[in-house]
Amino acid sequence: METTIVLAALKLVGYGLSTIGPGVGIGIACYGCCVATARQPELQGRLFTNFIIGAALAEALGLIGFVLTFIV
Amino acid sequence: METTIVLAALKLVGYGLSTIGPGVGIGIACYGCCVATARQPELQGRLFTNFIIGAALAEALGLIGFVLTFIV
Amino acid sequence: METTIVLAALKLVGYGLSTIGPGVGIGIACYGCCVATARQPELQGRLFTNFIIGAALAEALGLIGFVLTFIV
Amino acid sequence: METTIVLAALKLVGYGLSTIGPGVGIGIACYGCCVATARQPELQGRLFTNFIIGAALAEALGLIGFVLTFIV
Amino acid sequence: METTIVLAALKLVGYGLSTIGPGVGIGIACYGCCVATARQPELQGRLFTNFIIGAALAEALGLIGFVLTFIV
């Protein structure tokens, strides 16, 4: 029982670690998209597509960490 | 009992870790939005939308860490 | 008793961790707001609004960590 | 049994660590791609190819960490 | 037996640590390549070569960490 509880807590530590990178990465991607949209407003659709792709790739890493907390 | 208390503390450590990335990421997103708004004021609506989307994605990672502290 | 003291210490560690990201993030947001205001002084109201929203989102993560130290 | 559970938790910690770099890296790559596309819109195909290659290389490191959680 | 399992988990932690630098480094390399290609499109071949060399050097560090998980 004791071990199970420690496991649950350590799982959360693991998930927390897995959000550091994606969190920062999505922010940087969004920043780049905004600055770029400002320079070339007529490209906003293309720039937004780039941003969503990059953000989805980073977000996936965080969501995998979320899924792992239930299957490990 | 002892284990439960340690669990609660470790949960908080886990949540703390899960806020590092989102916190920084939201800041960077906001920074990009502000700079971009300054360059192209007429795009402020679009730039703000981009920022909110990026910030919401990062924020979600932190909120998941918050929810996890109660369900693990 | 010993465990309670260790708990208090770990809680503080957890809260400390939860302030790293928001602290940095708010600083970056403020920086972006300042730079942007300098470039387009007539937009200072809008830029300040953006900054406050971004800072509030990041700050919320830190405050949740603060609240958690009492309810976990 | 106890050791197995701790193992599972430590595996997740390991995966979490392995996503820090890729997460940030993909974000930076996406940012560079967006800014560059804004400067030279006629090169968007080439720039997007560069971004996908860089992102795939970084993503691979995270996915290897994901695979390792099952084979170690 | 117990020691073997802990070893396997610690191996993964080690690999995770070894991906932080390469992941970020590849992203920065890709970013530099994109920006440079946008400035001097006629140099895209040379710039892409530079990027691949830099990315390969960084990737090698991560792959060495991968190999080490089996030979240590």
From TrEMBL, chains A, B, C, D, E:
Pfam families, per the entry: ATP-synt_C (PF00137)
Described purpose of this protein according to its UniProt entry: F(1)F(0) ATP synthase produces ATP from ADP in the presence of a proton or sodium gradient. F-type ATPases consist of two structural domains, F(1) containing the extramembraneous catalytic core and F(0) containing the membrane proton channel, linked together by a central stalk and a peripheral stalk. During catalysis, ATP synthesis in the catalytic domain of F(1) is coupled via a rotary mechanism of the central stalk subunits to proton translocation. Key component of the F(0) channel; it plays a direct role in translocation across the membrane. A homomeric c-ring of between 10-14 subunits forms the central stalk rotor element with the F(1) delta and epsilon subunits.
Marked site positions, Reversibly protonated during proton transport: E59
Gene3D superfamilies to which the protein is assigned, alphabetical: F1F0 ATP synthase subunit C (1.20.20.10)
Transmembrane segments: 12-35, 47-71
Keyword Membrane: yes
Keywords: ATP synthesis, Cell membrane, CF(0), Hydrogen ion transport, Ion transport, Lipid-binding, Membrane, Transmembrane, Transmembrane helix, Transport
Organism: Gordonibacter urolithinfaciens
Compartments where located: Cell membrane; Membrane
Entry membrane topology: Multi-pass membrane protein
Domain V-ATPase proteolipid subunit C-like: 15-71
NCBIfam families the UniProt entry points to: ATP_synt_c
InterPro entries, alphabetized: ATP_synth_csu_bac/chlpt, ATP_synth_F0_csu, ATP_synth_F0_csu_DDCD_BS, ATP_synth_F0_csu_sf, ATPase_proteolipid_c-like_dom, F/V-ATP_Csub_sf
Protein name: ATP synthase subunit c
GO molecular function, one term: proton-transporting ATP synthase activity, rotational mechanism
GO cellular component terms, semicolon-separated: plasma membrane; proton-transporting ATP synthase complex; proton-transporting two-sector ATPase complex, proton-transporting domain
Principal cellular location given in the protein's record: membrane
